[in-house]
Amino acid sequence: MSELTTEVKHVPLGNLHASLGAKMVPFAGFLMPVRYTSDIEEHLVVRNGVGMFDVSHMGEFLVEGAEAQKLVQWVTSNDVSVLTPGKIQYSCLPNAEGGIVDDLLVYCYDSEKYLLVVNAGNIDKDWAWINSQNSFDCKLTNLSDSYCLFAVQGPKASEALQSLTTVNLPSMVYYTFEEGTFAGIENVIISATGYTGAGGFELYIPANKAEEVWHAIMEAGKAEGIQAIGLGARDTLRLEMGFCLYGNDIDDTTSPLEAGLGWITKLNTDFVGKDKIVAGKEAGLTRKLTAFVMEERAIPRSHYKVCSPEGEVLGEVTSGTQSPSLGYGIGMAYLPVAYSKPDTEIALEVRGKLLKAKVVKLPFLKK
Question: For FRET with 110, which of 230, 246, 293, 311 sits at 20 to 30 Å CA-CA?
């Protein structure tokens, strides 16, 4: 998105969220509901029951044509060739320097048709980047304004939604999708994905049917106690699982290997920037995105300094919060490799004081 762009975009259901009492804030260039009640209450609703997020600000690009797979393989770091129809893959878009343009989901219809789901704040950047790399026999279509995306998350998501579709929701495998009729609307993409670690589904709805489907879901989920959930709780839910947030934990300057994303960086494939990532691996990583928990009472905030126990500055917090599920502070920071091993003692600098913290292995919240 251009730095000169100051206009805030609106999701189709913005007025509905405001009428429900949501606090609306600018996020990734869109006016979005950050909370309806409280972040903690909404977080626990999703962890223990079911809640619905409107994440219609996300971007969707369709890639079609004889060489669609070749383009997607070239611009993403994961191995697209292992995907079969109905499967989804988490991946990233590397840049020529081995940094990360964005992280994304790749939906495989077949070898000549893919849907790429990208972060809201990167829609324009990603669109320009992928098009700049398209020397293949395939066509790109930006469908971002055509879809509304609802994430219905939590252990009771299947029960809340099943009455609205003939697709067997409990039998869907994680990271798969089906197209089917949902709430009377045909060709809805029902995806067994989400960024909360609580289970559930993401639903791609035609934008002109979004309000109708929102109300249908809220009505169908009443018995399970479904609630509308804002982006505040989404952030604490994803952080408890150690999921990266673009712009905080990963960006154009971070290597996927540093970020702990080696599992989606398949060096047996050929992709943009692979040579730089390989060179970095061979030289040896100097820092790693490292998870830590507070051993003293404090909430890690973004950009707080992370230090050695003696006070040497090692890095800064990329994401941090008070975990609603665990009841103590959790965070992530890029630290020297020597300080990245679990149980390593570190410290957080808070208002001039060094408070004890400890490195842990992700996820923070064990299932």
Answer: 246
What are the residues facing 153 on neighbouring strands? Answer: 51, 200
Structural contact between residues 277 and 264, judged by C-beta atoms closer than 8 angstroms: no
For CA atoms 196, 199, 204, 208, give the dihedral sign: negative
Closest CA to 278 of 287, 263, 268: 268
Residue keyed to tokens 């609630």: 227
CA angle 249, 314, 99 (to 5 degrees): 35
Nearest-angstrom CA–CA distance, 29 and 56: 12
Question: What's the CA angle centered on 152, arms 149 and 153, to 5 degrees?
Answer: 130
CA angle 264, 95, 316 (to 5 degrees): 75
Q: To the nearest 5 percent, what fractions of the chain are helix, strand and coil?
A: 25, 35, 40
Closest CA to 180 of 161, 156, 153, 200: 161
Domains contained in the chain, CATH given: 9-57+145-240 (3.30.1360.120), 59-129 (3.30.70.1400), 286-360 (2.40.30.110)
> What is residue 361's DSSP assignment?
P
Question: pLDDT-derived band of residue 367, with 50, 70 and 90 as boundaries?
Answer: confident
State residue 83's pLDDT score: 98
| Cβ contacts of 261 within 8 Å, gap of 6 or more | 77, 92, 103, 244, 250
Q: What is this structure's pTM?
A: 0.96
What is the C-alpha separation between 271 and 274, in angstroms, rounded?
Answer: 6
Contact present, 339 and 294 (Cβ < 8 Å): no
Token readout for 10 is: 């609106």
Please, how many CA atoms are within 13 Å of residue 167, restricted to the half-sphere of its CB?
A: 26
Residue in 347, 286, 266 with CA at minimum distance from that of residue 78 = 266
Q: What tokens does 126 get?
A: 């990603």
